[in-house]
């Protein structure tokens, strides 16, 4: 039995996804027909304890409420996801395989109480970006969420620089953190495959080689110099940026990172060291931003191989999360068995999936606590970012 009684600081899962088909609450979110026919969606249903033959807004919400209501964790940050906004600033739900309105998370909070925290999402191309961000700050949002590839946000765009600079002082002169997805993304694909690289902070020669073989479906090479300039401009204005998943690959083990799959881990590590999550600063460092990384979706056989690297990151810069309902594996059990099951999922053998019997968020917490005992990542969000 997991207990937080010995630690007065709050344990917060700061990376939890929610979603709706759009059959009953189309104003709160929707998934495309293409997306609901994909293997990844069916895997999420199984791990989220939703019967694939009985999927609806009602059953998805029931499963979400059950998972959050029963977890031993103190709070769960539920993530909204703004739809695509095109270059002209027009909202384009039709260009999004999945979007989740901020109001849906607020309604979950009305049902479940303060255990639910709002991870708001406002697209930086929205002409009303500042107005909407301020509104959700006033309504209790704890940070902003961007998933660049799926939302088709070019991090080299000047509007991203303006948004990051604004976020540095958006909360009555204090920073409003941004949870930024970086690295490979498979859970929510883009409707435009060319933007699949919008989550990348680097573009190596291996990336260029792989792109050649994509033929007519080539990805847009990210403008890494401009992306870095935009990020540093925001940090220079006081922004707080959380890099999701430490920028890690999902399928490539450590010794093949960057070869089989793109990795932004080294770049994330550099940002964490250059913009440390210090409790207090003085002099010329007082208004400089801070960088964090979360360990969500890291309880998997392949990402386990990166645990020694994660342990080398600054202790105060790591944040705990699950990425619910992304698969969680009981890694403290037999490793070979977990790898076999993981490969079976990739091959589509859903009958081979072993779903943890306990609450998925609790299993993720238990597994990460096993491998990172006494690490401050479990309370860093509470002590450094929440209600500050």
Notable traits:
388 residues, alpha/beta, TIM Barrel, eight-stranded parallel sheet, two-stranded antiparallel sheet, 15 helices, 35% helix, globular, disordered N terminus
Overview of this protein structure:
The protein is α/β, with parallel strands linked by helices. It has one domain (about 10-385): TIM Barrel (Alpha-Beta Barrel), CATH 3.20.20. Helices cover about 35% and strands about 10% of the residues. It contains 15 helices and twelve strands. The protein has helices at about 35, 40-45, 55-70, 100-110, 130-140, 150, 160-165, 205-210, 225-235, 265-275, 300-305, 305-310, 335-345, 360-370, 375-385, and strands at about 10-15, 30, 75-80, 85, 90, 100, 115-120, 145, 180, 240-245, 290-295, 320. The strands form three sheets. An eight-stranded parallel sheet has the order 1-3-7-8-9-10-11-12. A two-stranded antiparallel ribbon has the order 2-6. The protein has a two-stranded antiparallel ribbon with strand order 4-5. Strand 7, helix 5 (about 130-140) and strand 8 (about 145) form a beta-alpha-beta unit. Helix 7 packs parallel to helix 9. It is globular, with a radius of gyration of 19 Å. The two termini are about 30 Å apart. About 45% of the residues are buried. The model is unreliable at about 1-5 (pLDDT under 50).
């Amino acid at each position: 039995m997991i207990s937080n009684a010995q630690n007065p600081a709050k344990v917060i899962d700061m990376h939890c996804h929610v979603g709706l088909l759009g059959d009953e609450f189309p104003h709160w979110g929707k998934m495309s027909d293409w997306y609901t026919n994909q293997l990844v969606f069916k895997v999420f249903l199984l791990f989220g304890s939703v019967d694939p033959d009985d999927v609806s807004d009602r059953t998805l919400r029931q499963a979400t409420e059950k998972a959050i209501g029963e977890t031993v964790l103190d709070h769960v940050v539920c993530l909204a996801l703004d739809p695509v906004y095109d270059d002209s600033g027009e909202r384009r739900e039709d260009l999004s395989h999945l979007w989740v309105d901020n109001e849906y998370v607020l309604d979950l909070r009305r049902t479940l109480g303060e255990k639910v925290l709002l991870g708001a999402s406002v697209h930086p191309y929205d002409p009303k970006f500042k107005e909407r961000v301020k509104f959700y700050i006033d309504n209790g949002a704890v940070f902003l969420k961007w998933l660049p590839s799926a939302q088709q946000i070019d991090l080299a765009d000047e509007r991203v620089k303006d948004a990051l600079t604004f976020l540095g002082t958006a909360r009555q002169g204090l920073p409003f953190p941004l949870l930024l997805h970086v690295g490979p993304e498979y859970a929510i694909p883009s409707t435009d495959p060319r933007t699949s690289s919008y989550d990348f902070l680097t573009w190596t020669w291996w990336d260029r080689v792989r792109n050649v073989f994509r033929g007519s479906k080539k990805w847009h090479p990210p403008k890494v110099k401009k992306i870095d300039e935009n990020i540093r401009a925001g940090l220079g204005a006081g922004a707080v940026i959380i890099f999701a998943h430490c920028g890690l690959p999902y399928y490539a083990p450590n010794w093949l990172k960057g070869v089989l799959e793109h990795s932004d881990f080294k770049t994330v590590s550099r940002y964490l060291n250059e913009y440390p999550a210090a409790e207090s600063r003085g002099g010329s460092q007082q208004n400089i931003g801070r960088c964090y990384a979360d360990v969500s979706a890291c309880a998997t056989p392949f990402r386990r191989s990166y645990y020694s690297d994660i342990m080398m990151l600054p202790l105060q810069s790591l944040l705990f999360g699950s990425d619910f309902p992304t698969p969680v594996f009981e890694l403290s059990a037999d490793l070979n068995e977990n790898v076999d099951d993981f490969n079976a999922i990739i091959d589509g053998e859903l009958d081979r999936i072993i779903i943890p019997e306990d609450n998925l968020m609790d299993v993720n917490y238990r597994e990460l606590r096993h491998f990172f005992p006494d690490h401050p990542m479990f309370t860093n969000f509470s002590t450094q970012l929440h209600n500050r």
